[in-house]
């Protein structure tokens, strides 16, 4: 999966350390593909992280709004799917390829995020440059419920991982959760230390989610083109636990993060995982350095 290029665009919104990435031409067509998951749920792909569109009796709930300049294309695509207005926008975390499109949503849309994510969003240049349009106005700490019955959406926070504010968005009646980038896909985790992410706590947070998300069958991942099952979440937690244990062994053996990263190989038992680790967040050496920093605390 080609997530390095997509995620590299986060720097446009000032959310991440600068990495070398070539953004698309300003006049390139903004193409969004809509995948129908259920009669009232779609996943929009292209232009950043996966966006969920959940049609309720009274309006549309959207999860994540993609890269800068992609808010209007998201709204235009939604109009092709339903005549109902967008009423709610939920952000899974602070990164530019998930929140930048917020600034193009109507002021009538209620924007919701975990409380740490709002604090992180308040530091982003894109919101300062747009008079705080699209900023989260409502927050939650550990859990929040929106609506009821077939329209119910449950928001959960299980701990630090990708950032310190990763929300899990559950469409209860559909038994589906949007996980954002704390489970972007089957790969080495994306850990943003600058926004409170934790390599050390990642395995526990993932297992907390696996144990805490009841009556959920399917996961919409942050960037994967295929949905995953709850059994995949358990395996991903175990993958991260094995990865952290290996990192700790390497550090205790006196190796630098760069030396350890050069020797790492994807364990054979994790068949189907992407073995490549891009440069984002310092590559694998960056994840190891994050863990080393945490172990010193």
Explain this structure.
- The protein is built from nine helices and 13 strands.
- The chain is of the alpha/beta class.
- It starts with a helix and ends with a helix.
- Mean pLDDT is 92; it is low at 1-23.
List keywords for this structure.
single chain, 297 residues, alpha/beta, Metallo-beta-lactamase, Chain A, 7-stranded mixed β-sheet, 13 strands, 29% helix
| CATH hierarchy class name | Alpha Beta
CATH superfamily, please? Answer: Ribonuclease Z/Hydroxyacylglutathione hydrolase-like
> What is the level-2 CATH architecture name?
4-Layer Sandwich
Write the H/E string, N to C.
Answer: HEEEEHEHEHHEEEEEHEEHHH
Percent in helix: 25-40%
Strand content: 15-25%
Strand order of the largest sheet: 1-2-3-4-5-6-7
Mind describing the biggest β-sheet? 7 strands, mixed
Stretches where pLDDT is under 50 for at least 5 consecutive residues are 1-23
CATH topology: Metallo-beta-lactamase, Chain A
Number of DSSP helical runs: 9
* Termini gap: 35 Å
Domain module tally: 1
Structural class: alpha/beta
What would you report as the Rg, rounded to the nearest angstrom? 18 Å
Q: What value does the average pLDDT take?
A: 92
Overall shape: it is globular
Condensed summary:
With 297 residues, the protein is α/β, with parallel strands linked by helices.
What's the structural blueprint in terms of helices and strands?
Layout: H1 3-8, E1 33-38, E2 41-45, E3 51-55, E4 60-63, H2 71-81, E5 86-90, H3 96-99, E6 110-114, H4 115-121, H5 125-128, E7 138-140, E8 143-146, E9 153-156, E10 168-171, E11 176-180, H6 202-212, E12 218-221, E13 228-229, H7 230-252, H8 257-263, H9 283-295
Helix pairs in contact: 6-7, 8-9
């Amino acid at each position: 999966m080609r997530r390095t290029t997509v995620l590299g665009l986060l720097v446009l919104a000032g959310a991440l350390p600068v990495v070398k990435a070539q953004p698309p031409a300003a006049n390139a067509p903004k193409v969004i593909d809509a995948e129908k998951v259920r009669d009232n749920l779609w996943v929009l792909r292209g232009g950043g992280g996966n966006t969920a569109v959940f049609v309720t009796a009274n309006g549309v709930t959207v999860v994540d709004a993609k890269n800068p300049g992609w808010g209007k294309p998201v709204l235009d695509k939604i109009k092709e799917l339903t005549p109902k207005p967008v009423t709610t926008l939920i952000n899974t975390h602070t990164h530019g390829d998930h929140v930048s499109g917020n600034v193009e949503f109507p002021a009538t849309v209620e924007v919701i995020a975990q409380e740490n994510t709002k604090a992180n969003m308040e530091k982003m240049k894109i919101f300062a440059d747009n008079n705080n349009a699209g900023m989260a106005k409502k927050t939650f700490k550990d859990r929040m419920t929106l609506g009821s019955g077939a329209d119910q959406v449950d928001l959960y926070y299980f701990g630090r991982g990708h950032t310190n504010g990763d929300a899990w968005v559950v469409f209860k009646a559909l038994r589906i959760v949007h996980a954002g980038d704390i489970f972007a896909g089957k790969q080495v985790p994306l850990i943003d230390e600058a926004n409170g992410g934790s390599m050390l706590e990642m395995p526990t947070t993932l297992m907390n989610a696996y144990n805490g998300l009841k009556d959920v069958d399917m996961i919409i991942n942050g960037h994967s083109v295929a949905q995953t099952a709850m059994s995949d979440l358990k395996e991903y937690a175990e993958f991260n636990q094995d990865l952290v244990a290996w990192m700790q062994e390497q550090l205790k053996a006196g190796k630098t993060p760069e030396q350890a990263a050069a020797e790492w190989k994807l364990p054979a038992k994790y068949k189907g995982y992407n073995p490549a680790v891009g440069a984002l967040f310092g590559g694998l050496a960056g994840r190891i350095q994050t863990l080393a920093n945490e172990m010193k605390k």
